[in-house]
Amino acid sequence: MSLSQGKPKPFIPLRPLRKGGTIGVFSPSSPPVAENTAQGVRYLESLGYRVVLSPNYSQHEDYLAGSGEQRAGDLMGLICNDTIDAIFCTRGGFGSFMMLPFLDFEAIRKARKLILGFSDVTALQWAVYAKTGLPSISAGMVATDLSYPARDPQFESFFWELIESGHTNCTFQNTLSHAEEQDGVASCEGISMPGTMSVAAMLLGTKWFPVLENCIPILEDVDEPRHKVEAYLTQLILGGHFAACPAVVFGQFTDASVQGYPEVPELHTIFRRATQKSSLKVLQGIDYGHIPGKISLPLGVPISVSLGSTSILRTRQSIFES
After folding, report:
1. Which one of 30, 54, 187, 290 is the catalytic residue?
2. Is the distance from CB of 100 to CB of 64 less than 8 angstroms?
3. Beta bridge partners of 320
4. Does 137 share its domain with 222?
5. List 27, 96, 192, 220, catalytic entry
6. DSSP per residue over 122-169, as a string?
7. Tell me, what DSSP letter sits at residue 263?
8. Residue 290 is among the residues annotated as catalytic for this protein
9. What's the mean pLDDT in 190-198?
10. Does 299 score more than 90 pLDDT?
11. In a domain, 112, yes or no
């Protein structure tokens, strides 16, 4: 039985970010490198968008971009500013979950603005979904992927396709395929829940962890030793959080430089071992993770996933209102 509170939320489409619209930028986690932020802002402005930086986006408090209350204040300022059409994060790092007690989730729900972030921003995005049902976008950010002089073509293509159309359609080689049972014949449907697994695990036991009934978690991670990857995944399963999920999709798990044990299993061994006693459909291999060519994914949106050795993940509904 899951410890998550409440019921699954109905889908609420966001207000779209139009060409030439205004993007508010803030730092929900760790402080960004100033020049990286400037480069990302210049890139967005070169495409015709207006960019507004929040007051505390460059604050430093150890490894945090200001206190949780300051960062929450920056977000709520952008939420309540009617001239802001969408909100992009500067970077991840650590600490977005510290904002959660200071957020006005009802105001966030009413505003229906896109919040775009990745990695540590998983905590903020999953909490917003848990409390409001609002979708968001898990994608590269202003002071990271958008700041690179040579942006990866795959990243850029999927990023703007999702921003401009509200849809995504991604084909990937499923390296955990039960091809003899599923190839070319079956698919499953559910609500997309992309995120960084270790960050999602930080919300366990809190009122901000979402009900995952009928959701399809799409998980990635970075710099986590293999035994911790297995621990986070097993914790989510033992807690009952995946009990009503039709499938789970594993993206790219960038290895830690130092493993905790000399015997290190392959990732597919970990994924199979952790899920073997569940009824979950399990897929691995989508280009979602801490990689230059990361695809952008909507969170909280109806999707379908085919279950063959070549799998297709596609949105069934736009993240944006018509």
Report:
1. 290
2. no
3. 14
4. no
5. 220
6. HHHHHHHHHHH---EEE---TTTGGG-SS--HHHHHHHHHHHHHS--E
7. S
8. yes
9. 98
10. yes
11. yes
Dist CA 16 CA 224 (whole Å): 35
Structure token pair of residue 288 = 């979602």
The CATH number of the domain holding residue 293 is 3.50.30.60
- Alpha-carbon distance of 315 to 307, in angstroms, equals 15
Domain span holding position 233: 168-315
Confidence tier at 278 by pLDDT (50, 70, 90)? confident
Q: Is 321's pLDDT higher than 80?
A: yes
What is the SS3 assignment for 267? helix
Q: Is 69 a catalytic residue?
A: no
Last residue of a domain, one of 140, 163, 186: 163
Place of tokens 């994914």: 297
Structure confidence by residue, pLDDT tens digits, 200-219: 999 999 999 999 999 999 99
Active-site residue among 29, 30, 54, 119?
119
Number of domain units in the chain: 2
Helix (H) or strand (E) holding 238: helix 226-238
Q: What integer is the mean pLDDT of 120-145? A: 98
In angstroms, the CA 27 to CA 114 distance is: 15
Q: Work out the mean pLDDT of the chain and round it to a whole number.
A: 94
Q: Express each pLDDT in 29-59 by its tens digit.
A: 999 999 999 999 999 999 999 999 999 999 9
Amino acid at 167: H
Contacts of 188 (CB under 8 A, 6+ apart): 216, 246, 247, 281, 304, 305, 307
Element (H or E) spanning 45, and its range?
helix 34-46
In a domain? residue 13: no
Answer yes or no: do 142 and 205 share one domain: no
How many C-beta neighbours within 10 Å does residue 141 have? 26
What's the pLDDT score for residue 183? 43
Catalytic, 227? Answer no
| Distance spanning both ends of the chain, measured CA to CA | 38
Query: Which structure tokens are listed for 285?
Result: 């291999």
Tokens read off for 243: 């009990």
Query: pTM for the whole thing?
Result: 0.95
